[in-house]
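Possible regression after last week's pipeline update?

I re-ran a chain I had predicted before the update to compare outputs. Posting the input and the new output here so someone can diff against the archived version. Not blocking, just want to make sure nothing changed silently.
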Amino acid sequence: MQFSDKHKAALITFFISASVVMALFATHLKKHTLITETYYELEPEDPITKEQVEELEKKVQELKDGVKAETNQAFNQEQQSNRFSQAYKLIEPP
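New output (post-update):
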């Protein structure tokens, strides 16, 4: 059986397009792999009682009382250094 050039071209086109379709289908299947899911069992926290809240407030108050506030110390030190630097002028060459 002899095939004409038209038949040969049609068969080659069919096989090439079929291989492209099969390759695309194979890549599509690879994308749909199963993803393993992990489940964690979470336990709820115990509710905080009023006694615990009062204890925490006492601890916070103790911490606040123990801290000495030194808010403007750096600013004051800078002013003192500026005053000393103004007292000594640079000696300029004649």
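Follow-up from reviewer: compared with the archived run. Residues 5-31 form the longest helix (27 residues). Marking as no regression found.
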